[in-house]
Amino acid sequence: MSSSEFTVAVVGAGGTGGYYGGALARAGNHVTMIARGPHLAAIRANGLQVNSVLLGDFLLDVDATDNMSTVGPVDLVIFAVKSWATGAAISDMGPLVGDGTMIVSTQNGIDSERLLGEALGSEHVLGCAATVSSMIESPGVVTQGGGPGSLVIGEMAWDQNAATHDTAG
Questions:
Q1: Would residue 126 be called left, alpha or beta, if left means φ above 0 and alpha means ψ between -120 and 50 degrees?
Q2: Which of 8, 40, 54, 86 has the greatest number of C-beta atoms within 10 Å?
Q3: Are 17 and 33 in contact (CB under 8 A)?
């Protein structure tokens, strides 16, 4: 991996995380999918298949694990777990976060950014509102349908820094 390569960990590589992480991997970034169960096994064995009405269909050879401690610090964490798994996922995320790491939660709601900031440092957390129609079609296969969706990223009121502009582009 070159020093200029953007590194991403997708915590919760289901429909939403798999779609956005897949798009980032397709664009040339080094993406590690954090998944579990049959979905993880299928990604490891066959890669991640993304079927998208917007981006087309593509198969990606991505790293996949259920152990965040094996990944190390990354540039960007996409936090896309189901709400009920938030606490457990956050408690395991420490190894992913380095000095320059930014975290974007695709959970729509009002609590995940605060919880992430309290546990991992508010300077790492960006606000995000995500809309996309995507799902795990079968283990290892993420399908995106419907309209274009959106991913709106911005600074949280508690902390503004230059890394926001670098991450959100």
A1: beta
A2: 8
A3: yes
| Phi, psi values for residue 44, rounded to 5° | -65, -40
Q: Could you give the CA distance from residue 93 to residue 89 in angstroms, rounded to a whole number?
A: 6
Q: Which fold has domain 7-168?
A: Rossmann fold (3.40.50)
Q: Where are the domains of the chain?
A: 7-168
DSSP states of the chain = --TTS-EEEEES-SHHHHHHHHHHHHTT-EEEEE--HHHHHHHHHH-EEEEETTTEEEEE--EEES-GGGT--EEEEEE---GGGHHHHHHH-GGGEEEEEEEEE---SSSHHHHHHHHH-GGGEEEEEEEEEEEEEETTEEEEEEEEEEEEEEEBTTB--HHHHHHH-
